[in-house]
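To close the chapter, one final illustration. This time we ask the reader to focus less on the individual chains and more on the assembly as a whole: which components sit near each other, and how the overall shape emerges from the parts.
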Amino acid sequence: MLTLLGVLVVVVGFALRVHPLLVVLLAAFVTGYTGGLDFVGITASIGKAFTANRFMSVAWLLVLPVVGTLERAGIKERAEVLVRSLRGATAGRILLAYFVLRQLAAAVGLTSLGGHAQMVRPLIAPMAEASAERALGPLTDTLRFHVRAHAAAADNIGLFFGEDVFIAIGSILLMKGFLSQMGIDVEPLDLARWALPTAGIALFVHGARLLRFDARLVQFLRRPPAADRRHLLRRGDDGETS
Amino acid sequence: VIGAEVVYRLAGVVVALVAVLDFQDRSNPRRHRNALFWGAYAIALFFGSNLPDAITGGLVIVVVASGTLGLGRGSPQTTPEEERRATARRWPYRLFVPALLVPLLTLVVSIGGKRLDVLIVAKDLSLVGLAFASVVALVCAVVSLRQPVAAPVRECQRLMNLMGWAAILPQMLAALGALFAAAGVGDQLAMLMGRVIPAQGYFVVVSAYTVGMALLTIVMGNAFAAFPVLTAAIGVPLLMRRFGGDPAAVAAIGMLSGFCGTLMTPMAANFNVVPAALLELPDKNGVIRAQIPTALILLLANTVLLYLLVRR
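The assembled structure is written out below.
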């Protein structure tokens, strides 16, 4: 039972809004301590796990110099101009188009087409913002952040519910490997087939939300939802960590 | 042979340069702390495989301590908006070439590289592909857009300081996940779940599996960590063996229920917290907030789907 103390630290720490890095380090120490390690042993196990997971940061870190250089040369401004020249482009439609393309590409295994650092920040978010601005005039901060958050959401949802339709993706291989350990044989193709209904529903549900996105923005402008008003009031205490 | 290690070293060099620039940046009130943060991280990235694990662990503590105390931000030396508009007018299409090169070249290497196993380690193909694509796109951007040679590092410094501590959170969480797994946290949770869910009706068991998968993913930050736990506790013994559900359907829909959890948790930092930082959202949970309605509807849909499909 004691092994679960680390999980408790994470849940309570995040709930109390303790600094995330500190929460994770504390949880690691608690887990190591309950496992009977001493200080040096725990530190070493953290170092080992940290080294083993370097790919987590490297995957987007190396894209940043390119993205930054393109921003310096005005790619965001260019994306905004481009979107203004497209008749009928609205924030909702831009996000919808990106979401659908992202999901379709992931479904045929092209998961690298997209991403927050390489696509969303330099291209998709500025295009969606510029379209919203064209329709609604200068955006308030809340509205601007709302549009940006949805640009990131479109990327995630498109990726998650597209990739499992492709047979050679990590999660399918994990499922097959795990089940075969339990003595159950499944074909990757069957796993992918059973991912199709959910993929279709995701396309429909999130697509419908994005179709209504422009109308929601107008509503939002007239009367910000209570949650966001609360959030606006609270924004002061977040200064250090944001 | 090029493998992940080369990529980590390259990343280590990039972060080290950022540390040096931050150290020299007198407009940043906390330049020393920033330099410590990025410097220690750069060493952990570059020398991770060579250093004793305890030293790397010590570096991690330094990184966390300086990150928790709070990083600063200088006034970055980048171009003013007017100049950006001017270059955008001058090269309306050329600007997009490097941006599109990144995904395209990644794709080419990760597909075409399979035949080059003398040159690239097969299991690191996508990582090497991304690194290669980034380098080529960067050279292309600097040359074709006539950018100063120092621009990439300065711009990288600007973006990394925008992200601050959020930049290393995904790696920290992944490390914690590995520690949890080694300590047997998953098995413990599975045992608990097994006790809580006795021989109930079919719908209760199905919901326990799908909702449990989402909840466990929210706690662990990763559906891949939650999947084996709950599939061993509920999926295989109850849904597949007792109720005779199709294993492929149970597993696939279970995993997708986990993905619904991924959309709702700050523990999945690379999907939810990093983009919030990259897009400069004041609310680190802004992306999660946008995703929650879709995630909940899809979780409900998965539960109903599993109930209907597997019952036959």
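Chain B touches chain A through 143 residues (CB under 8 Å). The first helix of chain B runs from residue 4 to 24. With these observations in hand, you are ready for the problems at the end of the chapter.
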